[in-house]
Amino acid sequence: MAAPIKRVAFLGIGNMGWPMAANLVKAGFEVTVADVVPGRADAFAAETGGKAAASPAEAAKGADCVITIVPTSKQVAEAVDALLPALAKGTLVIDMTSGQPGRTREIACMLAGHGVAMIDCPVSGGVPRAKTGQLAIMAGGDEADLDRADPVLRAMGTSIHRCGPIGAGQAMKALNNLVSAGGYLIGIEALLIGQRFGLDPAKMVDVLNASTGMNNSTQKKFKEYVLSRRFDAGFGLDLMVKDLSIALEVGRETTTPTPFAALCREMWASAAALLGPGADHTAVAKLSEQMSGTVLGGNVEK
Asked: pTM for the full model?
């Protein structure tokens, strides 16, 4: 039986990774972090009591477990290539990136040839739940590896869902975001219709939350980020487009007709092109606003 995980190398301490790694420190794990942004690892160490490393390979030396959470599977592959010489047999790689299931299976197969196991564990819940350690985690991999990773995952999340073999967690995450993205768009359109009719969009949100139209966006996004005009939820519009593209890729691989999903993805991609790099995913509302000539919470143009 593999030894319990005590030493964790954490690669990628961005908006989500930083609070996730901080919760591992709080839970008593020995955490060493590395990040491509100069100075970020040192800042993390100074603030949380974790350790900083200058490179992924340095962070991985002596680690029982390596966690990756970066924007794409391409970057995961690059990180794994860089740290491979430092990985001892028996190390567990936990990829928490919202990545491509097929690419992840390729990486896992390569690592297995070096005596290193890999599981995929993308998360849902955003920055607020990353800070409180209440993320939902969708896990894919061998049961024994998932059992070994369980204490680590439970330091970051309260809802751990075993979805199947390697890649299953990432497929589930992409499909979750597809459902979330569809609900967001239709909710924005409903608010625009209602405002142009004369309804108060804030009151509409209250009614939706007391009725069958309730979803995550009505509960946690419309008032907080759209009607407030903040658009700063902390999850990039480009990342949502990436996840929707992965969902459609899974659809193609399974020969599943996806007409509504395809339209949803194209609308999000159109918003990304309209708003440019750096936009928050909640700003997709501006695409629908522009098409209708109406700003939610602003003056109604009839």
From this structure: 0.93
